[in-house]
Amino acid sequence: MPEALHAALPALFISDLHLSEDHPETVAAFLGFIEGPAREAGSLFILGDLFEYWAGDDDIDAPFNRDMCAALRALSDSGVQLFYMTGNRDLLAGDDFARITGMQLLPDPSLLALGSQHILLSHGDALCTDDLSYQAYRSQVRDPAWQTGFLSQPLAARKAFIESLRKQSEAAKQDKAMTIMDVNAEAVEAILRQYGHPALIHGHTHRPARHLHHVDGHECVRWVLSDWHDHATWLSFDGRQFKTADQTQA
């Protein structure tokens, strides 16, 4: 089992903002969060799908992407530790993105030690094992050789491909049962067992909740992070307890 990562407290966890110019209310919520509650944190963990899509680090100079990256860099420069785990929409975020924003990229999954609490972090899509077609797609696009080939294409071609893929994905979702697109209980129990029965935090499913799993005589809590719409929402851990919060409570 890999050595656990350490980070400063309090720690905040967010995912699935899907930032884009088409949703200015979510962008405003993100900027307000970065300039407000996040400044009081010791560390911030972004667990994937911060952007609606990320076509590659050579797209950083697009005005919208540049502004979002500058906001993250300002937070990092203020002394907050930033950690980033890619999701299915932003899996092409790489070293240049991390350098410009001041964030540390994390593999999926990653084990975190905060005080006496061990926490396993994941975007969550790898746990949706009942969705066989998605898992086949995920294996393909996570392959380094595929990514190298894709990133060698012109940026405009990549963006056009991603846009078409998004439309296909939305159409395919209409024909799938919601349970297929949720995490698989056995997959969750297997990863909790593999990493020593920690707490688990993930996003991806857009089904925010607190779940309890009983694995090998251990009670493990699983937090599912919320997606964002017109206000910020996050999970915090102060070394003693987890707490959900949103912009209306801050």
Write a brief structural summary.
By secondary structure, this protein is of the alpha/beta class. Helices cover 32% and strands 22% of the residues.
Structural description of this entry:
With 250 residues, this protein is an alpha/beta fold. The protein has a single domain, classed as Metallo-dependent phosphatases (Purple Acid Phosphatase, chain A, domain 2, 4-Layer Sandwich), CATH 3.60.21. Helix content is 32%, strand content 22%. The protein has helices at 24-35, 63-77, 95-101, 132-141, 144-151, 155-173, 185-194; strands at residues 5-6, 11-14, 43-46, 81-84, 103-105, 110-114, 117-122, 199-202, 209-215, 218-224, 233-237, 242-246. Strands 1-6-7-8-10-9 form a six-stranded mixed beta sheet. It has a six-stranded mixed beta sheet with strand order 5-4-3-2-11-12. Strand 2 (11-14), helix 1 (24-35) and strand 3 form a beta-alpha-beta unit. Its main location: membrane. Belongs to the LpxH family. It holds the Pfam family Metallophos.
